[in-house]
């Protein structure tokens, strides 16, 4: 009898193995590294000035590793550089690598390369620094991931002493993805099996600040201009494709100066204070355009969860100097009937549970799997008008528990530690699991003079967004991360380069990687084995969701793309290492030699 008993135990153990029941998250499988990383540098305020910035010789290349493999530096060489400081990037960490060119911009014969390997795999990549003299965009870096089947891209540094960032996620089993270009629009649906059982407050998603301010439309007569009032370079359709799932939409009605009872449509607004006697700012997209952009995206990419936090909800005169026009019930009803044109709204959701506590699948499965566009009213509606309509899929913001953290700082070096301290002040998972959806506003609020002179775009793409990838990422670990990473100028890497093919996918790839890698390493949040650690064939569903690695083309600094380059074409590659070249081990060449790593 005793023997039979142990046989039964053995049999059930074998069954557990076969049925995949041992496919659980185990703390001892965690790969996240706690190795200290060198600190980084935010762009100094004076370097935004193009005159002082033009002579700057310091630049940074940030590498973010959201894979379970160490990213190992194999070799470097540099010529005409005083600093060429590259290093390993452990799992879950980011390294801001430093470069300082020697002398001024006179030589143009400087060059440096850093060669990396994804540890334990056959995947390699190279980072190449080079200046082009004379040229209107002389300071460039090439991210050459052709050795991973992920293409090459040449970037121009967005300003003096700024960083270009490379985000890599995936694993050797799962496939890799990098930030050189955007992946498919439906990033949530593609990782349905990874996120379906996670609560909404256990997801990480990009968000956009003043989302509808992708152009200036002058529907109110005020001093708001592109430099001080426009917060995005791409419209809401492209923001969705760039990964954004949380939108800060501020809507007002515009009324003729002599008639508060009439109005000329609903418009996105960005003003200093929507209730002020004199509102200073301007208008952006029309609500009609926003609606058609969302509908275009969801028809092409069904199955996502998309939140619109809709603020303001007041009227303003065309000359906005006589205070707000509070909406009456008729105005609210007009507004609701407009919102009914949005497809994939989710009607009659369960409001007995906060939306933040519902599983992702609760929303992704709605509308026969077409997902949800969730409208959350967060405006200035007076006491006696409707504030939600469950049957229309319109909800009050209090249906979701959020903590929206705005630093209100003028510079990135003041904003970044404040944002990081906030999301580190609570834990994810386990007994003390934080209960709200945390919105991290990774953006700066320069005063009117500074933003008019230097532009909100320059603030976003030079000091602010690049610092997310070293300071922000190194402030995260499997127990500490925000849910919404809200930014200005999502996807924009290069000033005024707003065409879809000119964008860059750092935030998209960061969000995918934080969900796939970082959150999956927290066993209190993700009970199953990390998708990046599962063996191939463990579940065919996961295999279908493997990251695509089918593009190995080149994107040049000027935006030109070649999809099938000759295999020998590697931008910026150095064939001869000149006399004076410094190797990674400190050796200085005394004669010119062919590049042994060419
Ligand atoms: C862009 O750059 C590439 C490589 O330098 C060049 O071949 C191409 O002609 C350029 N395209 C334009 C439109 O300038
Ligand atoms: C430095 O690296 C070069 C190239 O790999 C090698 O030839 C040389 O011996 C190394 N020098 C030292 C001191 O290790
Ligand atoms: C290499 O450079 C050094 C210093 O500039 C110089 O003294 C030396 O003659 C050079 N060697 C060759 C082979 O060019």
Give the key terms:
disordered N terminus; 598 residues; 8-stranded mixed beta sheet; signal; binds 2-acetamido-2-deoxy-beta-D-glucopyranose; 11-stranded mixed beta sheet; PI-PLC_domain; PLC-like_Pdiesterase_TIM-brl; 15 helices; alpha/beta
List the helices and strands and how they pair.
Blueprint: H1 2-19, H2 50-53, E1 58-66, E2 71-79, E3 81-85, E4 94-101, E5 111-118, E6 124-131, E7 139-144, E8 152-156, E9 163-171, E10 175-178, H3 187-190, H4 192-195, E11 205-208, H5 226-229, H6 236-241, E12 246-255, E13 266-271, E14 281-286, H7 287-300, E15 304-317, E16 325-326, H8 329-339, H9 360-364, H10 366-369, E17 371-377, E18 394-396, E19 402-405, H11 412-424, E20 437-441, H12 448-454, H13 456-474, E21 484-487, H14 506-518, H15 540-544, E22 554-555, E23 561-562, E24 576-577, E25 582-583, E26 593-594
Parallel strand pairs: 1-9, 8-22, 11-12, 11-21, 12-15, 15-17, 17-18, 19-20, 20-21
Antiparallel strand pairs: 1-4, 2-5, 2-25, 3-4, 5-6, 6-7, 7-8, 9-10, 12-13, 13-14, 15-16, 22-23, 24-26
